[in-house]
Amino acid sequence: RIVAYVVARSEATLEVEELRAFAAHRLPGHMVPSAFVVLAELPLTANGKVNRRALPAPDWTLGALEGGESVDPETEIEIAIAEIWSLVLGIERVGLFDNFFKLGGHSLLAAQAMVRLRQRFGVDLPLRALFETPTLAELALVVEEAVLEQLESLPEGELVRSL
Prior knowledge:
The chain contains 7 helices and 2 strands; from the N terminus they run βαβαααααα. It has about 160 residues and is mainly alpha-helical. The radius of gyration is 20 Å and the shape is elongated.
């Protein structure tokens, strides 16, 4: 994950989305930072170099990343996806409207997440499903539809055994 530590030259308020847009305009997509941490000043060593060990870890919750508040997942599917993302991304908490890629996800982690979804729900979704529906809420709807389609396609006797 790429983290940008930003120090403002003036007392102007820095908006994370503006910083992200600025970076996205000038950098390839894979190099745009996943998190932006605004600091009053960079911590320095005795030699005047940036003290990387003293830099604060970013808060990986999307609410903190974008200045908003996180909404907890509620349904069984939403909670399961949040647990999978939390495990794959190595973060403690995932909210309903969090975006997998803004939380630090990339294509390799997306593939891991989709394998775990397949194992958990028994549905075979393409990897592009996560790229097309990157928020937990959106992906939960896709997973729910796939589960329902799978149940509807079972013969009536199989459906009873599945439940």
